Amino acid sequence: MEAMVSLRRFLLRQMFNLWYTFNPPWDTGVSPPELLAHLEHNPPGRALDLGCGTGTNVITMARHGWQAVGVDFAPRAIRQAQRKARQAGVQAAFYVQDVTRLDGIEGPFDLILDMGCYHNLSEDESQAYREQVRRLLAPGGTYLLYVMLRSPGSRLGVSDASLQAFKSFLSLVERQDGTNRGRQPSAWLKFTCISS
């Protein structure tokens, strides 16, 4: 079973790395209003972007005075992120890492952002990911999550049970449901860490 999970992660990493040879549709180069509102209403601290892609949101956070770190398992995306940060003249750290392990990444972080990473994980990977968020998010810190939601009869997207599992250490502050490109159900969720 572990070999199957490893193979799945390897193939997923290769697929995403290939996407970054071109312009993936999710890489708009624009930070979302949900992140901008958080940055506007909170003092700078330490921030971590899980599945940061080419670093757009990491650069935005750094421009707002945050000590920003980005993690993605696609090496090509991280190279592009590093180049974009240099061109923008901001200090930010980027790592090629698997969000289910995050070896060498140390918290606490006042803000953890995930725009579209969590919904690509299997149930086992989701559990390991949640443990990383629990380990790295500061007490009282904010976790901003954008996910595709699972439709009835589908295996794609995040299940309600997977989102409920965060409640063991996070408190839901706000949820905005919508659709991604008018097709798949999606949601923005804002959580606060209630335990370390």
Low-confidence stretches: none
Termini gap: 31 Å
Give the strand content.
Answer: 25-35%
How many distinct helices? 6
> Mean pLDDT across all residues, rounded?
88
- Return the string of H and E elements: HHEHEHEEHEHEE
Choose one word for the global shape.
Answer: globular
Spatial order of the strands forming the largest sheet: 3-2-1-4-5-7-6
Short recap of the structure:
The protein has about 200 residues and is α/β, with parallel strands linked by helices. It is about 35% helix and about 30% strand. The protein is globular, with a radius of gyration of 16 Å.
Structure overview:
With 196 residues, the chain is of the alpha/beta class. It has a seven-stranded mixed beta sheet with strand order 3-2-1-4-5-7-6, with helices on both faces. The radius of gyration is 16 Å and the shape is globular. It contains six helices and seven strands; from the N terminus they run ααβαβαββαβαββ. Helices cover 35% and strands 28% of the residues. It has helices at 2-19, 33-41, 56-63, 75-88, 123-136, 160-164, and strands at 46-50, 67-72, 93-96, 109-115, 137-148, 170-180, 184-193. A hairpin with a 3-residue loop joins strand 6 (170-180) and strand 7. The two termini are 31 Å apart.
